[in-house]
Design brief:
This protein is mainly beta and 271 residues long. It is built from 2 helices and 22 strands. A hairpin with an 8-residue loop joins strand 8 and strand 9.
Amino acid sequence: MKHDYRFPCMVLVWALAAGWPLAAMAAAGLVQFTAGEVQVRRGDVFSALARGASVDSGDVILTGSTGRAQIRFTDGGLVSLSPQSEFTVTRYADRGDPAQDSFSVGLLRGGLRAVTGLIGKRNPANYKMTTPTAVVGIRGSSFHAFFNVQGQLEVAGEQDAIEVCTQAGCVGVRAGESVRVLSGQQWPVYTNTRAFLPLPQARSPSAVGDQVRQDGSNAAVVLTPPPPVIPSVPPGQPTNPYVPPTPARPVTPGVPVTPGTPTVPGRPTKP
């Protein structure tokens, strides 16, 4: 008895064909939570965005005056949107290969906080956020970006370091620092920087610890600062420009004084 295996094979092919687009077109991320009015625009279609909804390349997420949303991407990265924001997932590709990965998003208005996922950790060059005036790249883990009331972009580093670039050039922003972008043709301006204060020199002498000699006896470790630096005289200048005047000779009665010789009154003589 012969069996016809063509039909089962065709069913298997159809099943694989049906499953392939689902794997290839996997969502870039999922919405973890929303609050207030949050919408997604796909092409010309607007729809409400709720918890558990998928987000993919090309989607534009808009939050209202009280709207907030947080998205978790497949690489573990997080983006939290503030009210009145417009956020675009320009191109997202989590292939596990630095040569093919891409995390390219855009912020047109509003603000966000972002935490880098595996795409940025595998190759920081694959992670960038584009705004109307600047491009934010990462060398670290997280940052905060928002447009102020004047419409100027402000970016702050929260962990490690990021890079903010305009047409004029790029500046590095470390954790605790922030910059403001006045225009796309100007360098970003630092609005907050980290202070690095020099350590004070130890006074002489200073005991900084103990040590044990080779014979087993104890000895103190004393730190002696270097001698003070005496400024050198520039070439061509006298080593001591001040010359003290020659002391005057006292006047002795009966002895004529040579003209031009400074004199001082002498002691009166007794008759």
